[in-house]
Each structure stands twice: as structure tokens, then as C-alpha cells.
């Protein structure tokens, strides 16, 4: 506002100077310094006018703000009055609450005592509950196992029921067949008993004949065994005789050959030298060879083995 008043004063001076300048047109031209000052003052005036316009707008906005704030102050004063009323009411309430607090504190003590007792009971109940939970869990597991077993047993029961029905049908059919077979069996038994009686008589007769035949066959077998034994002995004996005859024949042939080779004079000469008769000399010449004796032993052993083999056959059959 002071700047405004100064500027207005300056403006008035400017106007006054301009008037004086207009009057002094007839007078000689003013100095250049005065014109310059006038121009500077006009510029300043313009700037100041602009600033004044700006400040007027700000003043208006400030006035509006002041009005709003005054309204707000009124509202706040109304609120304060209300709050004071509320405060008074709240004080009364606080006094009531304090009195209630005292009562509640007294009640609290009793409640705390009851709470402690209740907490002890709760702990005991919690322990019981945990124990019961464990037992319930075990029971649930048992229940699950039991339900599974139940389902299995139900399936088995249904299967067994179906099998029983099938077996009942089979039983009924078998019973009917059994009755038929029993009837047939009784008929067969009667027929079989009759046939058995006849067969028993026939078998008795056949057995008698068979026993007689057996006795005869046993006698024949014994005769055959004795015949075989005698035959084998005779065979062995005859074979041995034949072997001895063959040997004797061979020896006789050799002696004859020797005799043919030797003259009677040489035989007599040899006998006189040995102081032995001619007969003894012939016996000396008839000495057996070792090979022939070995062969004879082998043949005798083979004959014995053959006899033992035949004896075994006779004992076996």
C-alpha cells in the first residue's frame, strides 16, 4: 500500500509535469534529462500497474481465504462448544467408569482366582484331551483297518455266497445223481452178489484144479532140475574123457613118430646106457608139455564156471 501511495504521488507529479510540459510548448523545448526521467517514470508506472493488478488478484484471493478461514473458525468454535459438552459428558462417564473399574478390579481379583482354578482345570482337560486325541487317532487307525478288513470280508462273503449258491446247485444235482446211482448200485449189488456166488463156486473149482496142476508142475520142475544136474555132470564127465582121449591119441601119435625115427637098436642102446627098460624109456618120452597142462587147467576152470552158471540158473528159476 505504501508503494502504491508513492507511485500515485509520482504519477501525480508526472501528470503535473506533463501538464506543465503542455503549457510550456510555446516556451523553449525542455531539457533531455526531463524527457528521460519521464520515460523511466512511465515504464516504472507500467510495471507498478502490472504489480498492482497482480497484488489486487492476490488480495482478492487472500480475502477469499480469510473469509473461508473465518467460516472455518466459526465451525471450529461450534465444534469446540460441542467438544466441551462432550468433555463434560465424558468426565461424568470417566467418573462412572472409575467407579465401575474399582468394582471390576474387585471382580477381577475374584475372577483371577477363578481363572487360576479354571486354568488348572483347563490344563488337566488339555492333558486329557491330548491323551484322548492319541487314543482317538489309534482308534481311527483301527477303524480304518477294520473297515478295510470289513470290505475284504464282505467281498469274500459275496464270493463265498456265490460259490455256495453254485455248490448248492451242484449239490442238488449231485444228490439227484446220488439217488440215481444208489438205485443203480442196489441193482448192481444184487446182480453182482448173484454173479459173485456163481463165480465163487467156479473159482473154488478152478482153484482146486490149479492146485493139482501146481503140484504136478512142481514135481515136473524137480524132475527137470535133477535131470539137468545129471545131464550137466554127464556132459562134463564126457567132455573130460574126450579131452583125455584126444591127449592120449596125440601122445600116441608122437611116440609112434619117434619110434619110426628111431630104430630098435638105438632104443635098446639108449635103454642100456640109462639102465632103463624100453617101456620106461617110452614113458619118459611121453612127458607132457607145460603149455598143454596150462590149457587143460584153463579148460577145467571154464567147465567149473559153466557148472556154477547152470546151478545159478536152476536156483533162480
From TrEMBL:
GO terms for cellular component: centriole; centrosome. It comes from the Eukaryota. Transmembrane segments: none annotated. Residues 1-34 are annotated as: Disordered. Coiled coil: none annotated. SUPFAM superfamilies: Tropomyosin. Signal peptide: none annotated. Residues 1-15 have a biased composition (Basic and acidic residues). GO terms for biological process: centriole-centriole cohesion. PANTHER family: CENTLEIN. This is CNTLN protein. It comes from Chordeiles acutipennis (Lesser nighthawk). The gene is Cntln_0.
Amino acid at each position: 500500500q505504501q508503494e502504491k501511495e508513492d507511485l500515485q504521488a509520482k504519477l501525480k507529479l508526472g501528470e503535473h509535469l506533463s501538464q506543465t510540459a503542455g503549457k510550456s510548448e510555446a516556451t523553449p523545448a525542455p531539457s533531455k534529462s526531463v524527457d528521460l526521467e519521464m520515460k523511466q517514470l512511465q515504464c516504472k508506472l507500467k510495471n507498478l500497474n502490472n504489480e498492482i493488478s497482480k497484488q489486487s488478484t492476490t488480495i482478492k484471493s487472500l480475502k477469499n481465504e480469510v473469509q473461508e478461514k473465518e467460516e472455518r473458525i466459526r465451525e471450529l468454535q461450534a465444534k469446540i462448544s460441542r467438544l466441551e459438552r462432550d468433555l463434560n459428558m465424558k468426565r461424568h462417564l470417566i467418573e462412572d467408569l472409575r467407579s465401575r473399574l474399582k468394582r471390576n478390579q474387585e471382580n477381577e481379583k475374584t475372577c483371577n482366582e477363578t481363572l487360576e482354578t479354571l486354568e488348572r482345570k483347563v490344563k488337566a482337560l488339555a492333558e486329557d484331551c491330548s491323551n484322548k486325541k492319541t487314543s482317538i487317532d489309534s482308534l481311527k487307525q483301527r477303524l480304518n483297518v477294520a473297515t478295510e478288513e470289513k470290505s475284504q470280508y464282505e467281498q469274500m462273503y459275496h464270493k463265498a455266497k456265490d460259490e455256495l449258491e453254485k455248490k448248492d446247485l451242484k449239490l442238488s444235482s449231485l444228490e439227484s445223481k446220488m439217488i440215481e446211482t444208489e438205485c443203480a448200485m442196489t441193482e448192481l449189488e444184487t446182480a453182482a452178489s448173484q454173479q459173485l456166488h456163481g463165480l465163487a463156486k467156479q473159482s473154488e473149482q478152478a482153484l482146486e484144479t490149479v492146485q493139482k496142476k501146481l503140484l504136478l508142475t512142481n514135481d515136473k520142475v524137480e524132475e527137470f532140475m535133477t535131470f539137468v544136474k545129471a545131464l550137466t555132470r554127464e556132459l562134463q564127465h564126457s567132455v573130460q574123457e574126450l579131452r583125455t582121449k584126444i591127449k592120449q591119441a596125440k601122445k600116441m601119435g608122437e611116440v609112434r613118430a619117434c619110434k619110426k625115427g628111431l630104430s630098435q637098436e638105438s632104443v635098446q642102446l639108449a635103454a642100456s646106457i640109462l639102465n632103463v627098460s624100453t617101456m620106461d624109456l617110452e614113458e619118459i618120452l611121453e612127458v607132457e608139455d607145460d603149455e598143454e597142462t596150462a590149457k587143460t587147467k584153463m579148460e577145467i576152470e571154464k567147465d567149473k564156471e559153466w557148472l556154477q552158471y547152470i546151478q545159478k540158473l536152476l536156483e533162480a528159476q
